[in-house]
Design goal:
The complex is a heterotrimer.
Chain A (H helix, E strand, L loop, with lengths): L1 E10 L2 E11 L4 E5 L6 H9 L6 E6 L2 E2 L5 H6 L2 E3 L12 H7 L9 H6 L2 H20 L15 H13 L5 E5 L7 H16 L3 E5 L3 H7 L2 E6 L2 E6 L1 H6 L1 H14 L1
Parallel strand pairs in A: 3-8, 3-9, 6-7, 7-8
Antiparallel strand pairs in A: 1-2, 1-4, 4-5, 9-10
Chain B lengths: L3 H11 L1 H19 L3 H26 L8 H17 L4 H23 L4 H21 L1 H4 L5 E2 L5 E2 L2 E2 L3 H23 L2 H11 L1 H6 L4 H27 L1 E2 L6 H14 L4 H17 L7 H15 L4 H20 L1
Antiparallel strand pairs in B: 1-4, 2-3
Helix pairs in contact in B: 2-8, 3-8, 3-11, 3-12, 3-13, 4-5, 4-6, 4-11, 5-11, 8-11, 12-13, 12-14
Chain C lengths: L1 H34 L6 H19 L3 H24 L7 H23 L15 E3 L2 E3 L1 H23 L1 H11 L1 H6 L4 H23 L9 H16 L4 H21 L5 H15 L8
The chains are: A alpha/beta, B mainly alpha, C mainly alpha.
């Protein structure tokens, strides 16, 4: 589904990503792990178009997307969640999830202002899809709440609903369980497994090792912007380079 | 199963927007029969004309989160465009109005494409600068615009044999336009495109990641607001038969912004309320004309400090949150 | 020879108005650097400078120098009051709200000025006499000389203030990193109030200097202030040398276009150039 070839990015003189290459298989969950500052968020931003890599190629099902602006990449079927939550606080929960269907919705102002019958029909269809997504993520009861009234855990799930509602080809999950307790983490893990059963392809960035070992089919490890290991979870967790990257960091701060 | 009374309530709630619009239309149809004083009718007509400008401006400022301190310029382009087109050039009024609107749209595109790359005070300054340029031209190019003494003799609008030449006719004319603009704005706001704008206002990065073309959306709203302002300006010219540059200065632009803020940034209904309040204020505090500026400024400042979302949005948001919290406690 | 004299005349006029724009631009920059907002009441500080000067001279009967000092001090006091009662109570971080807030405060100030001093235009006598001087064939008003001397003095004092005094250093610290400054023990609130006062003083000085040349009214500061704002953007918003450069640049631009093209449209020239700068290089000449 997604191929990265020799992706490099510098911030000024500082290298954030160096020669990163890996593949995300269709229908599988690939986890991206690594110590803080390894470049995981930068990489996700480059893939989704929020940021741009200076070198290298990013291919979405053979189509080059590294130079495309974020909204075009979204139109190609790439959805994402955000590490620090980017929820639209002033919109209702339902409207938040509906924004996940922006690509499917009519964008012409004129048609929208005239509210032609075709548009009304489309709106009804979109609402049904959004309500369905809310149902999957157990948020139906709060559909009409202002999003600002939700708890942190609910907001995380709403962002996920927003990402999955458009049936995207690829979903980038940026630390979906950051800041959640174990009960809520388990809930998210269940949702992720559910989505995988539906056939969604996911790239998961996470610090929570339990979650990664639990759901990931394939793991890629970044350290200081380089890809230092990749493989199935069990192999990677025993890789000495990986251990050193994590423990070495811990020793330095101890 | 719901009782028929519950069914009725549910129906009303579901279609509350449409019903409110219909209710307002009925009210407006009957208004000139109730209010026979032409001066007061003139006031409500002014509210309708300004509402057109402020609706577009609210979509731009409130919904899309941008700034314009120069919208009086587009109001002027419509007014003077219609004035010059119908009086000096002698062309028929309706096509001239459309032409002025298209011209305003073109200028909005030309100014907006580069200007909307800016934000915050840079955009504020750019729109202010644009207004000052247009205003100065209105004053200095007196051979065409009539200069500071204004431009008189603008013909009335007519549809067939019906000429719009008194306050009652104006009422139906301008409020038809205003209601169409209101309806279009409500439709836009409740559509996918409208949600894209709301998303854009809160978080551009997230909106882009969801598929909203940020630049295109900003420019489209800017152009839409310019067209609405221009049409309002044309109506203004044809109703008063006279225009002068003072109605299009940066101070007027700021008044439009005050109407947006008071009503509620992003609230379509709030627009009507804010426009009405600011337009009628000088009438209510007539004795205190000397205090007019202070009152205007004070209202703006107090709202921004205590209720920054504006009166209508602030109240509806508080109510919605309270209802939601109460339901969760009972659940 | 006449052409050269004309050019000299225009240049001198340009530098003179440029000095005024520079003072106003500096006021905008000071507040923006420490508080992160664009303070639209700056335009009213300019008008107030002229107003207080007028009152000092004609209501109280002070001698010229005393009236000047008192006027600037009075505007500074007003600035502090505006910050304390107008800006500080707002707890919003939304930049839209803050911009509109200062606009609202500006409207209130103008309303108060209208009440106290009336709507009519007034005249303030020049500070150094009315006899025009002659330099290299060009006619110069003594007021222009006063403007240039006072502005240069003010800029010099400003530089000394920022380099040499504790408050100046504190202001630079807050402008650079507010959180770090607070951690180090700097009273950020007091610094913000002080920077507002400083900006007001600069605006008031500009008003005192320029109103003998232009007429005085409650809204005289608006167009001047907006041009000062434009000058700040031209030179690079937030940069002090940029403010001075932008001010002089805008003044020269205006004067030359008025002289060689059309004086009726000189405002158009100024703001069209501003629009071009904003579209092509919003950072301005020396902007960060």
């Amino acid at each position: 589904m997604l191929e990265l070839h020799h992706v490099c990015k510098w911030f000024g003189g500082l290298p954030a990503l160096q020669d990163v290459s890996f593949t995300v298989e269709t229908g599988r969950i690939t986890a991206l792990i690594g110590p803080n500052g390894a470049g995981k968020s930068t990489l996700i931003n480059c893939i989704s178009g929020v940021d741009k890599a200076q070198e290298g190629r990013i291919l979405l099902e053979q189509e080059a997307i590294e130079k495309l602006p974020a909204h075009r990449i979204a139109a190609l079927g790439v959805a994402r969640t955000f590490q620090n939550l980017k929820v639209f606080a002033r919109l209702s929960v339902l409207d938040n999830v509906l924004t996940g269907l922006t690509v499917a919705a009519e964008s012409s102002f004129t048609v929208s202002m005239l509210r032609l019958p075709a548009l009304r029909h489309q709106e009804r269809q979109l609402r049904l899809r959004a309500l369905e997504a809310l149902d999957h993520f157990n948020l139906s009861a709060k559909a009409n709440w202002p999003a600002s009234a939700l708890s942190y855990g609910d907001k995380k799930r709403m962002e996920m609903a927003r990402a999955f509602v458009g049936s995207p080809r690829l979903v980038l999950l940026d630390e979906p369980v950051a800041g959640l307790n174990s009960a809520e983490t388990a809930r998210i893990a269940r949702h992720i497994r559910q989505q995988r059963r539906s056939g969604h392809t996911m790239l998961l960035v996470e610090h929570d090792m339990e979650l990664v070992m639990d759901v990931a089919d394939h793991v890629v490890v970044l350290d200081s912007g380089r890809c230092i290991a990749s493989g199935p979870p069990d192999t990677v967790r025993r890789n000495p380079l990986v251990l050193e990257a994590y423990l070495g960091r811990m020793e330095a701060t101890a | 199963m719901m009782t028929s009374r519950e069914n009725l309530f549910y129906f009303c709630y579901l279609h509350r927007t449409g019903l409110t619009v219909i209710g307002l239309c009925l009210l407006l149809i009957g208004w000139p029969l109730v209010e026979t004083n032409p001066y007061n009718l003139g006031l409500t007509n002014l509210i309708a004309i300004f509402a057109m400008v402020v609706l577009g401006l609210n979509l731009f400022i409130g919904y899309t989160g941008q700034i314009s301190l120069g919208h009086a310029a587009f109001f002027a382009l419509g007014a003077y465009g219609s004035a010059i087109g119908t009086t000096t050039l002698g062309w028929p009024a309706w096509p001239v109005m459309a032409l002025a609107a298209i011209g305003s749209a073109a200028i909005a595109l030309a100014v907006g494409l580069p200007a909307l790359k800016l934000s915050g005070h840079y955009l504020a300054m750019a729109t202010l600068g644009f207004n000052i340029v247009v205003y100065t031209i209105l004053i200095q190019w007196d051979t065409v615009t009539g200069g500071p003494s204004g431009f008189a003799g603008i013909p009335y609008l007519a549809v067939g044999a019906l000429v719009f030449d008194n306050e009652i006719h104006f009422h139906y004319l301008v409020w038809t336009f205003a209601m169409l603009a209101l309806l279009s704005s409500l439709n836009l706001v409740r559509s996918g495109a409208g949600r894209g704008l709301a998303a854009l206002a809160e978080d551009e990065t997230a909106a882009a990641a969801l598929g909203v073309d940020i630049r295109s959306a900003k420019v489209k709203v800017f152009i839409l607001s310019a067209v609405l302002a221009s049409i309002g300006g044309s109506l203004f010219a044809h109703c008063y038969a006279f225009v002068s540059p003072d109605s299009f200065s940066i101070f007027v632009s700021v008044d439009f912004v005050i109407m947006v803020v008071v009503g509620g940034m992003g609230s379509i209904w709030g627009t009507l309320f804010g426009t009405a309040l600011i337009t009628l204020l000088p009438e209510w505090i007539e004795a205190l004309d000397a205090y007019k500026d202070i009152v205007h400024g004070l209202i703006l400042v107090l709202i921004l400090i205590f209720l920054p979302q504006g009166l209508v949005t602030g109240i509806t948001d508080t109510v919605r949150t309270r209802i939601a919290l109460r339901r969760s406690r009972h659940a | 020879m006449a052409d050269f004299q004309d050019l000299l005349q225009f240049l001198f006029a340009g530098i003179t108005s440029g000095a005024i724009y520079a003072l106003i631009a500096l006021g905008f920059s000071v507040v923006h650097n420490t508080m992160g907002i664009v303070n639209f009441t700056q335009v009213d500080f300019v008008s107030l400078g002229g107003m207080f000067m007028f009152s000092g001279l004609f209501w109280i009967g002070l001698p010229v120098v005393a009236a000047l000092v008192c006027a600037v001090a009075a505007v500074t006091a007003v600035g502090m009051a505006v910050e304390r009662f107008g800006v500080r109570p707002s707890r919003s971080q939304n930049h839209l709200v803050l911009i509109f807030l200062t606009i609202g405060l500006s409207i209130i100030l103008r309303g108060i000025m209208k009440l106290v001093w009336g709507k009519n235009r007034m005249a303030v006598p020049p500070l150094a006499g009315e006899e025009p001087l002659h330099l290299a064939g060009a006619t110069i008003l003594p007021q222009a000389v006063v403007i240039l001397v006072m502005t240069a003095l003010a800029i010099g004092l400003l530089v000394l203030f920022f380099r040499g005094t504790r408050m100046g250093l504190a202001m630079r610290a807050v402008a650079s990193n507010q959180t770090a400054a607070a951690v180090v023990g700097i009273s950020v609130g007091r610094v913000k109030a002080a920077s507002f006062a400083l900006a007001a003083g600069l605006g008031g000085l500009a008003g005192v200097l320029v109103t003998p040349i232009t007429t005085l009214s409650y809204d005289v500061g608006v167009l001047l202030g907006l041009k000062g704002f434009a000058a700040a953007i031209l030179g690079g918003f937030g940069s002090f040398p940029g403010a001075v450069l932008g001010g002089i640049g805008l003044g020269l631009l205006e004067s030359l276009s008025a002289g060689y093209w059309s004086s009726a449209y000189k405002d158009v020239a100024a703001f069209v150039v501003l629009l071009l700068v904003l579209f092509i290089r919003p950072k301005g000449l020396l902007g960060k």
